[in-house]
Amino acid sequence: MPELPDLEVMKSYLDSTALYKEIDAVEVADSIVLEDITTSGLKERLVGQSFDSIRRYGKYLFVSLSGAGVLVLHFGMTGGLQYYKIESHQPDYELIRFAFKNGYRLAYTMPRKLGHVTVTEDPDQFIQKKDLGPDVFADDFNLETFKKLLDGRRGMIKPALMDQSLMAGIGNVYSDEILYQARVHPRKEVGELQPDTIQHLFECMQDVLHMAIEHDADPETFPANTLTPLRGEEGADCPRCGGEIRRIEVSGRGAYYCPKCQEE
DNA sequence: CCTATAGCCTGACGGC
DNA sequence: TGCCGTCAGGCTATAG
């Protein structure tokens, strides 16, 4: 779930639910997700504070605290958030519970414990330390930026789009969707891309990410001409040409594409 | 600089 | 039903 569009949806969700409410208690079910902080350290930093504003960068959310510091949330492959009140509504796999004074809770959920949570004093420094490239939704991330990043890059296009140190925000699912919309084969060598193809890729990247956000990052509601809802259904009909959707390994990740529309 | 591989974790799913 | 292998939308470390 958690790529740029999912994170944008989570940010909106937090904006409309969990801001400006005093934190009463923090429960950590498994401290394995805590990075550079202990359970008691996290409690000390959060209890008595409130969440004041949310910033997304790549696949991270930075939640500014009313006092000092910024809560950092990363969702691994399976993480999510749930704001709820009644104990019986507690979601499955709640790893961290932020309990507010108003009686509501925010659950940080994650069946596979591959996400990370920490507190930082300086998000920009954190971004540097993680070696994240520019966020693909940054105001100054334009076609020229995209061209410069790909210029001189060796290797295939799909891993380039997914390389968080090159550009931050795109993961396995949306890299496939972008390449499908742009009709570029996931194994296409970056160096072989024509300038107009790069421009088309850039436009498809913007379009796909915005489309996903408009649809709450829920593939079931995506338009009919998208590939994402067909993930897991190898052999399905390509919505565009009637070809057969295939799954291959690219750089160790499962890649879905249409061999007919996206020629090698 | 880039790729491949393994590891971190655990649930869901298909086959026998 | 139970067991087993495979896969899963992330990131990191290592070797080549």
Task: Show the helix and strand layout.
Layout: H1 4-17, E1 23-28, H2 39-46, E2 51-57, E3 60-65, E4 70-74, E5 80-84, E6 94-100, E7 105-109, E8 116-120, H3 123-129, H4 143-150, H5 157-162, H6 172-182, H7 195-214, E9 246-250, E10 253-257
Antiparallel strand pairs: 1-6, 2-3, 3-4, 4-8, 5-7, 6-7, 9-10
Helix pairs in contact: 1-7, 6-7
The structure holds a DNA duplex (16 and 16 nucleotides).
Features:
single chain; 264 residues; alpha+beta; four-stranded antiparallel sheet; 7 helices; 10 strands; 28% helix; globular; DNA-binding
Task: Note down, in words, how this protein is organized.
This protein has a 4-stranded antiparallel beta sheet with strand order 1-6-7-5, covered by helices on one side. The chain has helices at 4-17, 39-46, 123-129, 143-150, 157-162, 172-182, 195-214; strands spanning 23-28, 51-57, 60-65, 70-74, 80-84, 94-100, 105-109, 116-120, 246-250, 253-257. The chain is of the alpha+beta class. The structure holds a DNA duplex (16 and 16 nucleotides).
Low-confidence stretches: none
Helix segment count?
7
**Alpha-beta content class:** alpha+beta
Q: Tell the overall outline.
A: globular
Strand order of the largest sheet: 1-6-7-5
Order of helices and strands: HEHEEEEEEEHHHHHEE
Oligomer: single chain
Instruction: Report Rg.
Output: 20 Å
Mean pLDDT rating: 94
**How much helix is in the residues?**
25-40%
Tell me the fraction of residues in β-strands, as a range: 15-25%
Distance between the termini: 28 Å
Characterize the biggest β-sheet. 4 strands, antiparallel
- Strand tally: 10
